[in-house]
UniProtKB/TrEMBL annotation:
<feature type="domain" description="Subtilisin inhibitor">
    <location>
        <begin position="76"/>
        <end position="158"/>
    </location>
</feature>
<keyword id="KW-0646">Protease inhibitor</keyword>
<dbReference type="InterPro" id="IPR023549">
    <property type="entry name" value="Subtilisin_inhibitor"/>
</dbReference>
<keyword id="KW-1015">Disulfide bond</keyword>
<feature type="compositionally biased region" description="Gly residues">
    <location>
        <begin position="50"/>
        <end position="66"/>
    </location>
</feature>
<keyword id="KW-0722">Serine protease inhibitor</keyword>
<dbReference type="InterPro" id="IPR036819">
    <property type="entry name" value="Subtilisin_inhibitor-like_sf"/>
</dbReference>
<keyword id="KW-0964">Secreted</keyword>
<comment type="similarity">
    <text>Belongs to the protease inhibitor I16 (SSI) family.</text>
</comment>
<keyword id="KW-0732">Signal</keyword>
<feature type="region of interest" description="Disordered">
    <location>
        <begin position="42"/>
        <end position="74"/>
    </location>
</feature>
<dbReference type="GO" id="GO:0005576">
    <property type="term" value="C:extracellular region"/>
</dbReference>
<feature type="signal peptide">
    <location>
        <begin position="1"/>
        <end position="25"/>
    </location>
</feature>
<protein>
    <recommendedName>
        <fullName>Subtilisin inhibitor domain-containing protein</fullName>
    </recommendedName>
</protein>
<dbReference type="Pfam" id="PF00720">
    <property type="entry name" value="SSI"/>
</dbReference>
<dbReference type="GO" id="GO:0004867">
    <property type="term" value="F:serine-type endopeptidase inhibitor activity"/>
</dbReference>
């Protein structure tokens, strides 16, 4: 945890110094090139290694070119839902999205792929966890939980969702229809 905080602090200071070079009295600090995870939601997998063995293997499906601006979406993930209140929504489902393709065993594969494509086009990461210092309303949204693991845009995804407070409910709702409406 301390290492993550140190890496985050060094990276933040470097970004601030680059954004406003005349506004800081500190000399530029070289930032070491360390593997920084995209998704830090899983304490058992803090560096996002889930999905490393998949065909995407962190390479993405973009042939070495920048995917930003293209309509290609690369998704291969497993969504496990429990206690949603709808027996047909509970279970483990595969979601596969690609160019002109949505499939797997997910009941709303096309809608889920469209939602993830919209998030990517908006440069939004719907899998990020709620910050530890977030002020959240103490509303309980029910016992539903979801576990999402796999790849999204060639990056490992490992996220755990629940509905224990307002922040987590919002996070869940942001991923509908990847996860069911409860």
């Amino acid at each position: 945890m301390l290492r993550r905080l140190t890496v985050t602090a060094v990276a933040s200071l470097a970004l601030l110094a680059a954004a406003a070079p005349g506004a800081t009295a500190l000399p530029p600090v070289p930032v070491p090139l360390l593997p920084v995870p995209l998704f830090l939601d899983d304490p058992q997998d803090p560096w996002g290694q889930v999905g490393k063995g998949s065909p995407e293997g962190g390479q993405g499906g973009h042939g070495g070119q920048s995917p930003r601006g293209s309509q290609e979406v690369s998704v291969r993930m497993t969504v496990t839902v429990t206690d949603s209140g709808d027996p047909s929504a509970d279970g483990t489902f595969e979601l596969v999205c690609g160019p002109d393709r949505a499939g797997g065993t997910h009941a709303k594969a096309q809608a889920a792929c469209d939602r993830l494509a919209d998030a990517y086009a908006a440069d939004e990461n719907p899998f990020l966890p709620t910050p530890k210092d977030a002020m959240c309303t103490q509303i309980h949204g029910g016992p539903a939980t979801a576990r999402i693991a796999g790849t999204w845009q060639g990056r490992a995804v490992s996220a755990h969702l629940n509905r224990v407070n307002g922040c987590e409910i919002s996070r869940w709702n942001n991923l509908i229809p990847v996860v069911p409406t409860v």
